[in-house]
Structures are given as C-alpha cells and as structure tokens.
C-alpha cells in the first residue's frame, strides 16, 4: 500500500487499469434538468465491469501487489460490490480470493461474488468482526488483505472515475459523491483538488451517518466504529469513515454534507430508472436525491456531476 494519496497515484492507476475496464458513458436527461433547475451529468458506473465503480480500486490494488512480488491470494470485506470486484480481479491474475460479507448481504450480490470465483465468509453485520475476520485469514493464509476503505491504491483506482469524468465533462461546477467507508470520495476529492480545485466536491450520505459533526470538529467522532447503518443503500452501510479517508475529506471537500433518507433515495432511484432507462442500485441514487432535496443550497452550482456508482440491484426487492 502506498503511504499517501495524490493525483499522480490516480494517473498511475489509470495507466494500469484503463485497458482492462470499460470507459463508461455519461447520460443526461432534459426532464431531470428541468425538475432540478440544473444541468446534470450522470457517470454510468452501473455499466462498469462487475456492475460498479469498485472494480477500479480493487483491480488497481491487486495488479500493483502482483507487480510488487509473489501474490498468494487476496481477501476483503464487502457488502457486495467490492467483493465482486475482488473476485473478478483475482481471477484475472490467477489467485484465489475470499470475501467476508455481513449475513445481511443480498442474495444477488452474494451469488455474484461466488460466481466470480471467491469463497464467502459470512459474519455478523459488524465492521469490527468483518475486519478481524479478514485480518486473521490474511495472516493464516498469507493472503493480501485489500482494505476497501484505507488502502491508498484502492482509493487511487477509484479516483480514476473522476479523471475519466472530467475528460468527458470538463466544465462541471460541482460533484456530488456518495460516502460509505470513504474510499471513493477520497480518490475523487484528492484528484479534483489537485487538478481542478474550482470544482466543488460535496459528500452525500445516508441518514444516520452524521459526517457533518466530524467535519465541524475536524476530527472523526464515531465512537462505535463497528456500527452499520439501517439504510436501503446497502453499499453505504458503514457508518464511520476511516482515518485515511477522513483526512482527505476534511482537506478537499466542501464542509457541508448532504444527508438523505430511505424515502428520498427510493424516489430518486425510481426517477433515474424511469428517465435514464437504466438499472441502478439504491446507493447510486444518492446524488440525485441530494440535488432534489438541497437544490436551493446548490443554487450557485449549475453543472453538476453525479456518479451512478452501481447497478447490482435485487430486482425482486426494489424499494419503491
């Protein structure tokens, strides 16, 4: 794992993975623009390999580890998308993989992880238990633990999504980015801060995360770092943000965090599926949910970028 995160690390990651992933398109909708009184640009990572942006970070980290020496196997913890990305990446480099998942993981995502070739380790829905399971297995088996939220190579790989985004839509005023454990927002915010700091990067969270209090204090305030949120956005269930990610958020993002609840996420998800004609999972809808709820606070931002982070929805259990 690299010791710091910067735009150069993102560019290195882009060179490493660009020929192995999809360059995803941007979609727009005149109806959604009219509803929001904004010009919205939706980056379709739901069309990405394994169905989410997470292949970018996991593939970069695993390829970098492979370059650095012998790689016996890989392991991570995941609510679904990261696990699929790890399993797919491991299969491409020819090593075994294990994914520790909460017992609440959706059947759709669990089945996909196994289909990509990984072994599942089911755990209680508790971050500490998931982390300890990964660390013990990594030590016992000699596997590389790919930390989804603290590994700078993962963050750099995730940051390639905004490098690509800005090549396709260079004149954005703002980016609204979902926050789970913090890997995506860290990679995106650090790259934007160094390459085009005029673009405002806002954090969007599921209700109950309360990132705002920590930003106000400028230090992480989560006392129970094992807690998972009760949210339909299953890719964003982690309540705490890691120390590494928080430092980047505090340095590079706007100090105003936008929070949305389950009903607002559900409404935005339905609008996106109706108007853009694409399948997304609830986590991908937070950006639009935030624009709809906070459009007055965003009155100075006219061209807004939103990342549709994933499309691995359980179509038998849609929230609307």
Give your account of this protein's structure.
The chain has twelve helices and ten strands. With 320 residues, it is an alpha/beta fold. The chain folds into two domains: 203 residues, 3-Layer(aba) Sandwich (Rossmann fold), CATH 3.40.50; 92 residues, Rossmann fold. The strands form two sheets. A six-stranded mixed beta sheet has the order 1-2-10-7-8-9, with helices on both faces. A four-stranded parallel beta sheet has the order 5-4-3-6, sandwiched between helices. The model has no long low-confidence stretch (mean pLDDT 96).
Number of helices: 12
What global shape is seen?
globular
Tell me the helix content: 40-55%
Number of strands: 10
Structural descriptors:
about 325 residues; alpha/beta; Rossmann fold; 2 domains; 6-stranded mixed sheet; 4-stranded parallel sheet; 12 helices; 10 strands
Short description:
The protein is an alpha/beta fold and 320 residues long. Helix content is 44%, strand content 15%.
Topology:
Blueprint: H1 7-17, E1 26-27, H2 30-36, E2 39-44, H3 54-68, E3 74-77, H4 81-93, E4 97-102, H5 107-115, E5 119-123, H6 127-141, E6 144-145, H7 152-168, E7 174-178, H8 183-195, E8 200-206, H9 211-217, H10 243-252, E9 257-260, H11 262-275, H12 286-294, E10 303-308
Helix pairs in contact: 1-3, 1-7, 3-4, 3-7, 4-5, 7-8, 8-10, 11-12
């Amino acid at each position: 794992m690299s010791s710091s995160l910067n735009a150069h690390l993102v560019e290195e990651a882009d060179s490493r993975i660009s020929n192995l992933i999809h360059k995803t398109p941007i979609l727009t909708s005149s109806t959604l623009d009219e509803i929001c009184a904004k010009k919205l640009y939706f980056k379709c990572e739901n069309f990405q390999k394994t169905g989410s942006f997470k292949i970018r970070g996991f593939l970069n980290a695993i390829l970098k580890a492979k370059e650095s020496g012998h790689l016996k196997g890989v392991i991570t913890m995941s609510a679904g998308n990261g696990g699929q990305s790890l399993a797919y990446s491991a299969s491409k480099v020819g090593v075994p993989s294990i994914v520790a998942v909460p017992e609440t993981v959706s059947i759709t995502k669990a089945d996909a992880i196994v289909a990509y070739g990984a072994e599942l380790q089911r755990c209680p829905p508790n971050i500490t238990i998931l982390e300890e399971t990964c660390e013990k297995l990594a030590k016992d088996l000699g596997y590389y633990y790919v930390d989804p939220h603290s590994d700078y190579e993962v963050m750099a790989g995730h940051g390639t999504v905004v490098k690509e985004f800005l090549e396709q839509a260079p004149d954005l005023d703002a980016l609204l980015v979902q926050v789970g454990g913090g890997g995506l927002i860290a990679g995106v915010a650090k790259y934007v801060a160094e390459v085009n700091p005029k673009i405002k990067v806002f954090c969007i969270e599921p209700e109950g995360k309360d990132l705002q209090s920590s930003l106000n204090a400028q230090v992480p305030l989560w006392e129970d770092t094992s807690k998972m949120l009760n949210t339909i956005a299953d890719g964003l269930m982690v309540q705490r943000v890691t120390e590494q990610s928080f430092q980047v958020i505090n340095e590079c993002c706007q100090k105003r965090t936008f929070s949305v609840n389950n009903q607002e996420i559900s409404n935005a998800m339905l609008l996106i599926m109706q108007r853009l004609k694409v399948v997304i999972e609830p986590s991908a809808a937070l950006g639009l949910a935030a624009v709809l709820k906070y459009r007055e606070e965003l009155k100075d931002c006219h061209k807004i970028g939103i990342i549709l982070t994933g499309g691995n929805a359980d179509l038998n259990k849609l929230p609307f």
